[in-house]
Each structure stands twice: as C-alpha cells, then as structure tokens.
C-alpha cells in the first residue's frame, strides 16, 4: 500500500506529540483511579479512552463482526493475531469487556504505560519464571470477571501472515477453566508497519470467532488446542484479506 509523502511530518509533528499527551494524561488518571478502585475498572476506562483517542486522531476506522454472538456474562481469554502495535487500541476500544493484557515484564518499566499496566491488574510475565504467579493473577482476574487479551504469536507479522501460536497461555487457560475466543485482525499492519514509526489512516476489520470451552481439555493437550485456534484465526485473517481486495 503506497504511503502519501505528507505522513512522515504528520506523524512526527502531530501524531507523536498528541499520543504522548494522551498517554501522560490518561496514564496519570489511571494511576490516581487505583486509589479508589483496586480492581482496575476505572483504569480500564482510561485505557479505552486512550485507545479511542488514538484511533480517532490517526483516522483509523474499524469494523467488528461476531461480537453479538458472544455472551457477556463471563470472562474470556482472547487470542488474536498480531500485525501491529495498533492491535492493542483497536481491541481495547472494540471489545466491550473488562480486558487485561498478558505481556512481558519489561513493559512494566515504561513510564506511564508500564505504571498503568502494573497497577491496574494486567499480567506482566517474568519469562524466567512464568508459572505459579501468572496462574494466581489469572485466577484473580477470573474472580473479578475480567478477560485477558494475548497475542500468542509472540511478535508482530510484517506481511499479515499468521505465525505459530505458542501453547503456554493455552495451557494456563485449560488449568484455569477459562474459555478461549479466537480473534482475527486484518489491516493494522497498513496503519503502522513493523519497524516503522510512521502511521497512516486506514481501515481495520476484526472477526470475533465463537468461544471454545477448555473444560474437555487436559493440560497436556494445550499444544493441540493452540493449533486449532491458530488455524481458525489464520482462516479468519485470510477471509478478511480476500474480502478487502
């Protein structure tokens, strides 16, 4: 997709300062909200406002299908493909749930963003010891009726293809009895390509697939279930790519 020449200066002189301002202001509000709301519900509202502002400022429109068929009375593990850092604001704004992300612990050191993640219930994983503490956090989020968003490819796709899904988070979902919802995202890579700071206006399509119960699975079947979800997400992405051509 061709990038109009004005986008570099629009990004540098308008978008970056605007997004930095949103992050500082709403990050500060989210930190203050934790003083009165330990479960992070108010902080999540700040995160959703941050996501909405970013999408509006960068002129990114989003179509979502499948949400109407998803029951709202329980938490889920949302597993989505990863094309761009824009996947986060797209899904935070459009998933009508209390959503927390599972991310690497080093993100907790980033000013404002990391402080928000640490203090509002998001799961920051120490990859050298990911097990027991992560399970405790996931179970606590389930008790609070909060859902978890994970990008199980582990990295962003440069060309829109879906890479192999890691089985570790699926195993945790099986152990916690958390239903899994596959999510296909297409178009965010055109908004902000991997390795590129410049952003472009764009249109994103999201397909939310039916939830998969983990009750019938044993932990040793996590890799098998991860493969099933990976294929569903890949098929959804490919369908969306064809529909957009």
What does this structure look like?
This protein is α/β, with parallel strands linked by helices. It has one domain. The protein is built from 8 helices and 7 strands. It is globular. The N and C termini lie close together (12 Å). The model is unreliable at 1-5 (pLDDT under 50).
Observed structural traits:
single chain, disordered N terminus, alpha/beta, 245 residues
Unreliable spans are: 1-5
Helix-residue proportion: 40-55%
The biggest beta sheet is recorded as: 7 strands, mixed
The helix/strand series, from N terminus to C terminus, equals: HHEEHEHEHEHEHEH
Strand content: 15-25%
Q: Numbering strands along the chain, what is their spatial order in the largest sheet?
A: 1-7-6-2-5-3-4
- How many structural domains are formed by the residues? 1
Instruction: Please provide the count of β strands.
Output: 7
Distance between the termini: 12 Å
Give the helix/strand class. Answer: alpha/beta
- Overall shape: globular
In round numbers, the mean pLDDT is 87
Report the radius of gyration as a whole number of Å: 18 Å
Helix count from the secondary structure assignment: 8
Write the layout of secondary structure elements.
Elements: H1 7-33, H2 41-57, E1 60-65, E2 77-80, H3 87-94, E3 99-104, H4 113-119, E4 123-125, H5 132-143, E5 147-150, H6 168-176, E6 180-186, H7 188-191, E7 202-208, H8 222-244
Parallel strand pairs: 1-7, 2-5, 2-6, 3-4, 3-5
Antiparallel strand pairs: 6-7
Catalytic activity: a 1-acyl-sn-glycero-3-phosphate + an acyl-CoA = a 1,2-diacyl-sn-glycero-3-phosphate + CoA
EC number: 2.3.1.51
Pfam families: Acyltransferase
